[in-house]
Amino acid sequence: MAAIQAARLISRKAHVLPGQLHITELFFEVPKNHARPEAGTLRLFGRSVRKNERPIVPLSASELASKEKLPYLVFLAGGPGFGNREPQNHALTHTALNRGYQVLFLDYRGTGHSTPINTESVLAQGGAQEQADYLKLFRANSIVCDLEAVRLCLTKDYDDEKKPWSVCGQSFGGFVSLTYLSKYPQGLREAFLTGGLAPVKRTADEVYIATYRKLVERNNAYYRKYPEDVATVRRLAEFIQGAEGSAIPLPSGGKLTVPLFLTLGLAFGAHGGIDDVHSLVLRLATDLDQFNTFTRTALAAFEAQIPFDNHPIYAILHEAIYNTKQKGAPASNWAAYRVGQAQQPFSWLSDPRAFLQSTPASEPLHFSGEMVYPFHFSDAGPELARMREAAEIVAATEEWDEDLYDEEQLRRNEVPVYAVSYVDDMYVDFELARETAALVKGIKVRETNEWYHDAARSKADDVYATLFKLRDDEID
């Protein structure tokens, strides 16, 4: 890998919050394209947090400097395409501070307070090809270059043995961690992964074949818990299909179609997700009973479950997280759409009207999950619609400038890696995750069927305790 230049620190503002937290807001400047630094720059935003020490005897200058140079633990968020919550609201913060780290929450390029990806910033790049080329700079390979550049900046005054930092990657953040281990292992002291063992060896098609299987199981669980929703979901779908123009306007400018309605299963992979979907189905059905239409309140609640229009990186680059540089590797080419159409429970993707007419009323309608489809770029909202042409080019890309993983480097890995892997993970297939774990030298994995994919948030204390137990316990 080419050497990375340290990021340029633009601004640093420190704040002390109630609860003894010392938070510093940081802005950095990094190359837009690390392979071509002359091509312009992007801004990155992060918050570092450490304990605000208030000892009885004031700290000396050297003691204070030592506190400011605590080892970093960097949280790598899921997604792709989402920023970080405030440190005081994040479950990792106090766990990590109590173990002697300071924590950095860095918004990936294109997310949060970092230089954003939105319609204006993408369309400003020029035509559809230029827009697509720009979007391709927001994958994990660029993210780890940003991380390494920020590490070099923040630890430049550290002793050499303290310069490497730790990372904790949730979901897509685990994918980023594996890319980091592949390309800049010298920058890492240790890596913690929760639900983030990426299917390194697999194509997008293979990934979706596996995740659709798990999705069928989650649909079955939904209808076992709420059997009355077999009829209710079909009734809602038939009403939506029969609406004038086969579309119902959504508050932010999209349209509620049957395919978009049936993407609500995205929530099924999280703790409480089945209940959330039922609650929304009940709300829509109640509106229909009372008003023979859907209220704005219900439609806004529906939109909140399909957030792609406000987070376009997720929609545009979701399948690209599985693309490799390998010669002859296929383009993703809307893999989730193609794979789903070929499976009977999801064949509504091809023609929802014909599907509703040809299937018996007693047959449950299956919701899709963590999949992005071409119709998201026409139905989910106006922001995505304006970027559809660029998204089509990204989906058709067969050869990428840089691969995401180095399997040989992972096989000879020397960085300690600790992972929690979920047997009932709807988003990261367990068997494919196990295949990746077998690839990474020295990894320690806790496999469990106690939790779902979002456990790092909904069961945070248990998950982080498990990770640190993996690190602290010795088998021999």
From TrEMBL:
Pfam families the record matches: Abhydrolase_1
Occurrences of domain AB hydrolase-1 (ranges): 73-219
The keyword Transferase is annotated on this UniProt entry: no
Entry annotated with the keyword Hydrolase: yes
Entry-linked InterPro entries: AB_hydrolase_1 (IPR000073), AB_hydrolase_fold (IPR029058), Peptidase_S33 (IPR002410), Serine_prot/Carboxylest_S33 (IPR051601)
GO biological process, one term: proteolysis
Keyword set, alphabetical order: Hydrolase
GO molecular function annotation: peptidase activity
Family: Belongs to the peptidase S33 family.
PANTHER family: 2-SUCCINYL-6-HYDROXY-2,4-CYCLOHEXADIENE-1-CARBOXYLATE SYNTHASE, PROLYL AMINOPEPTIDASE
Name this protein carries in UniProt: AB hydrolase-1 domain-containing protein
Species whose genome carries this gene: Staphylotrichum longicolle
